[in-house]
Amino acid sequence: MATGSKVKLSTTDCGEFHVPGITPESAAKASEVLQENHENHHIFFNKSGFHNHIAHHTLTLYALGAPPSLIQKQYDKNKSYQRPTQPIDNEVLKDLHDPSKFRKYLGNERYYHDYLVFFQDEIDKKGYEEVLNEYVLKGDERAEDMLVRMYAGFLHPIIHLGFGVEFKQPAIIAEALAEAAVHDAWVAPFFHGAEKAAGEIGKPGTKSMVTLLEEIRADKKLSTAADWGDGNKIRDGILKRAPDEMIKYASQFTVEPAKLTERTAEMINAAVYFTGGAQHPPKQIKFDFYYMHCVNCSIFFSSFLKQPWISEDNKIRLLEWKGRLDLCMYASRRSPKPLLDEITNYKPKQKSSLDGILKRVAAVPDDGHAAKLVRALAHGQQVSKPYDASENFKIKSDMWLQLEHMGK
User: Fold this and answer.
1) How far apart are CA 152 and CA 106, in angstroms?
2) Burial class (CB in 10 A: 0-12, 13-18, 19+), 144
3) Beta bridge partners of 6
4) Residues 17-56 as b or e (16 or more Cβ within 10 Å = b)
5) Which CA distances in Å does 320 have to 149, 188, 221, 258?
6) What residues contact 161, with CB distance under 8 A and at least 6 apart?
7) Do 277 and 340 touch, CB atoms closer than 8 A?
8) How close are the terminal C-alpha atoms of the chain, in Å?
9) pLDDT (tens digit, 0 to 9) for every residue of the chain, 408 residues total?
10) Listed residue (184, 187, 179, 206) closest to 328, CA to CA
11) What are residue 3's DSSP bridge partners?
């Protein structure tokens, strides 16, 4: 049985998008390498805060039907540069159980292992559903701070959380909580400012994501706020030189309860639109690395929708924050006009069905970004299909296979 410290995958929980025929042998191998990673590796593989992507990669490979040999091969390649976890400090662990001292260690990667063990214990005592509601979604000072950190680091903590929820793995959720705890929270004024400007959570949305992307692109102060030399183009560019403008547009992405499913699909489609369309002919077709995270993260919001233990208000809030950060991410790369012709006219190097693409991308010798992207695209195609007639959904029909080919 899966616990806060034990990974145990099941062939009945293979992910929001997965291929048929996933084997018990692949489940066992993926569980084995995830367990080794859980026990031995830090969430950052260097002191600069670069993320360990092994959990993301392995679970994506598993969902794409990779055989045990490929799961092991990709793990062996990526474990070679990981950092070991640091020893537990029992005094710190004791402090974490005291709400008044919980904040003391936030934002410091030195305490990742301490937070991990703390959340393992909390999950084993209460269940991951109650722990997430208490520490991330409750709305008190501690949970508000942790929710902000979930969206930090270019969405990595909430991506990690999404994998844990999607595959029902408490140990991966414990990793995500510990990961969020050691990220910073400088993006808090943006989220809280946009929420205040919106007036309330769950207001009827009067503007689509596509409209807001266009308005951001037309706002010259905002769309040129980030400079090439900025260390972090959101923190040092957008939120330093045009914070009020960014909040003005971001606050207009709102989600009324009756349209929660549609707005989730719209967010996914819009992320694919500005990510896939951000091309620079005649340069080679590429995906912007930072935009890619908006797509790779999008699949999990369909999973969040299906969780009965997340309240409707929290589902709305999670989605509003994701849409708003996507808009901020779009502005941070100087808001390039999405070029749909670059998608529709793309000539695949190896034309095939989606099944062929999935097999090829699973074998790409990277840290999983390509496989995550193509799986998220395949999911986006599924959830966007009911809205193909809408002008708010720019990515339609055959464009999806084109984008999947562009991904591999």
Assistant:
1) 13
2) middle
3) 3
4) bbbeebeeebbebbbbbbeebbeebbbbbeeeeebbbbbb
5) 16, 14, 24, 14
6) 132, 150, 173, 176, 177, 180, 300
7) yes
8) 36
9) 999 999 999 999 999 999 999 999 999 999 999 999 999 999 999 988 999 999 999 999 999 999 999 999 999 999 999 999 999 999 999 999 999 999 999 999 999 999 999 999 999 999 999 999 999 999 999 999 999 999 999 999 999 999 999 999 999 999 999 999 999 999 999 999 999 999 989 999 889 999 999 999 999 999 999 999 999 999 999 999 999 999 999 999 999 999 999 999 999 999 999 999 999 999 999 999 999 999 999 999 999 999 999 999 999 999 999 999 999 999 999 999 999 999 999 999 999 999 999 999 999 999 999 999 999 999 999 999 999 999 999 999 999 999 999 998
10) 187
11) 6
Distance in angstroms (rounded) separating the CA atoms of residues 130 and 123? 8
CA pair distance 403, 408, nearest whole angstrom? 9
User: To which residue do tokens 């084993």 refer?
Assistant: 124
Within 8-111, residue ranges assigned H as helices are 24-40, 54-63, 68-79, 90-96
In this structure, what token pair is assigned to residue 360? 């090829």
Name the helix (H) or strand (E) containing 143: helix 141-150
